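Escalation from tier 1.

The customer reports that the assembly of two entities below gives different structure tokens on two consecutive runs. Tier 1 could not reproduce it. I'm attaching the input and our single run for tier 2 to review.
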Amino acid sequence: SAVISQKPSRDICQRGTSLTIQCQVDSQVTMMFWYRQQPGQSLTLIATANQGSEATYESGFVIDKFPISRPNLTFSTLTVSNMSPEDSSIYLCSVVEQGGGYEQYFGPGTRLTVT
Amino acid sequence: AQTVTQSQPEMSVQEAETVTLSCTYDTSESNYYLFWYKQPPSRQMILVIRQEAYKQQNATENRFSVNFQKAAKSFSLKISDSQLGDTAMYFCACTSGTYKYIFGTGTRLKVLA
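Tier 1 run:
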């Protein structure tokens, strides 16, 4: 299965600032996803990021708040903009491998705390 | 719309015993996939087991097996010979051709020594 890394692993940020989270995969992947996991909760899909096209956002998430880049088949970034304490969460990226099935493989997550 | 329900917020089991985690789902798709993921305190989501809806045989991975009841839309996970390292949150998930997952709310499992 794909090996996925995320940077940073955690950060503490001031409200009103922005943070960019990186997701790097050790192989080319078809689809990448970004999730938010609020404390003690399940995972909520933010957006689907496919290479060569604009990210597709889920209801309740907008590009101005969570801009995403997908410059190639192994890398993506998610920016959390103009942060507020409500953005404090774990952010995870996941991938679907080329030629694989429907299983997703997840990165280790980025724990964000906004003060 | 797809939904996934996990009705057990927390469970505990003695080491070496067997435990079953419940999951029910609802989907209008004829072809779909079901998964169990484990999230230990390290927060890494780990795929435990997968089941294709078109397969009647229940999936098995070492100590982990599922009881897939398609008509009842039930997909429970059985963990045999529980180990301390099985302590984690367990999420049930469903997807169809869009690749997007719908996750359940999770079951926190604690294995007791």
